[in-house]
Amino acid sequence: MALMREALLWEGASEGRVRCRLCAHRCLIPPGSRGVCGVRENRGGILYSLVYGRLVSQALDPIEKKPLYHFLPGSLALSVATVGCNLRCDFCQNHVISQYPREHRGGIPGEAVAPEDVVRAAKGTGAPVIAYTYTEPIVFFETCRDTGVLARDQGLRNVFVTNGYMTGEALDHTRGWLDGANVDLKAFSEDFYRRHCGGSLQPVLDTIARMVEAGLWVEVTTLVIPGRNDSEEELRWIAQFLAGISSDLPWHVSRFVPSYLSYGLPPTPVSTLRRAREIGTEAGLRYVYLGNVPGEGEDTTCPSCGGTVLRRQGFRVLENRIADGRCSDCGQPIAGVWS
What we know:
By secondary structure, the protein is of the alpha/beta class. The chain has three domains: about 5-50, no CATH class; about 55-295, TIM Barrel; about 300-335, no CATH class. The chain has helices at about 95-100, 100-105, 115-125, 140-155, 170, 190-195, 200-215, 230-245, 270-280, and strands at about 5, 10, 20, 30, 40-45, 45-50, 55, 55-60, 75-80, 110, 130, 155-160, 180-185, 215-225, 250-255, 290, 300, 310-315, 315-320, 320-325, 325. The chain has an eight-stranded mixed beta sheet with strand order 8-9-11-12-13-14-15-16. A three-stranded antiparallel beta sheet has the order 1-6-5, with no helix packed on it. The protein is globular. About 50% of the residues are buried.
């Protein structure tokens, strides 16, 4: 299988350059050069993906690990990734693969795995979901698209775990095969995105709103980092933004553990996450979860009667009391994808 494929969503520009329209950077790439992601290259005035079918990870995960708490709970997801990312977060927990091309002189490792093989593997394990995750799925979009279309034909679902830094055109190309996403909303500050991620805030906000409008199931994760995005004011801005889109948007507020270029920072106090949960609830969000805090803030409660409808421990579902999408006690609809 060829490990290089002409890219989707690009156009020619002057002097042999090409304009990539896949992510919000909209890179203008000279001949022989690559975009910010490090895996899309202009060769002779044509933009190519260098990671098509070149997987560096293929693993079977609980869907709760994505984290997706309202999407086929208790299911397994076959998770796949290539190297590369269109952001440069200095706290990245998967930097070994996300930043590989930048840190290894443009190297593109990976095993050749065809979309058909990924779908066959998912079917063989009984996993009803394929998750495009670990790095940023938008940078291996051609693999996602080809795999996703085949997966849908075989009755499987497809989900992104994404930083949301994509264009509206890219999202339009997911219609008919993408079912859901967990989007990282890393902060509510342009300065944070520029300084710590190498990007901007607004495209991520636009993606969340567009995904919900398109009918995808969406959950949002914020890694709460001490001294950077953990003020009550900023957490309230995030909560209010999400509630303004839908009170049914699940929000995962996750504990930061020092990583990559941010080892000098302390882990997030659990008390900060508890307060973030209170802020989310005060803003009108019905489902706010604590992440990376085993044994706390993992259960789903009915927004009407307050009963526990999904009881979890880590990534395991211990009890599911949702029947036909409703609370078994009071009949209140529980937002999500349940069957």
